[in-house]
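Moderator note: this is an archived Q&A kept for reference. The question asked for a predicted structure of one protein chain; the sequence and the answer are reproduced below.
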Amino acid sequence: ESGIAPGHVYLEITESMFASDLDKMLRQVTTLQSMGVKVSIDDFGTGYSSLSVMQDLAVNLVKIDQSFIQKIETKGQPIINAVMNISDGLDFRVVAEGVESPEQMAQLALLGVDYLQGYHLARPLEEDDLDDFLKR
């Protein structure tokens, strides 16, 4: 209805949604995917974490929760490595949420994370400020 091409739309599903009516959710998401809508799992690793759901949804993108990024120097890195290995094997792209320092950014780049999101890169912007930000 909006006129936006489905291939430009990413539907973010949080892991807590897996605990609801899973069959209904899978049917609805599969229908959207058949139209070209992309699917990402948000806050991966903080909730239900059904790996079988990742297979069934044919996820396009996995977003690693910021709680793991904030602990990248300690116990976070092995978890990030595991998510990267799973994502590589299933041909998913990976977003690291909550990147707040150049050190985190460098380490995530070395780990092969596809996309970074967080205050180190940009604070949330109003629509009117977006053009100026992109020009910089």
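Archived answer notes: The first strand starts at residue 10 and ends at 14.
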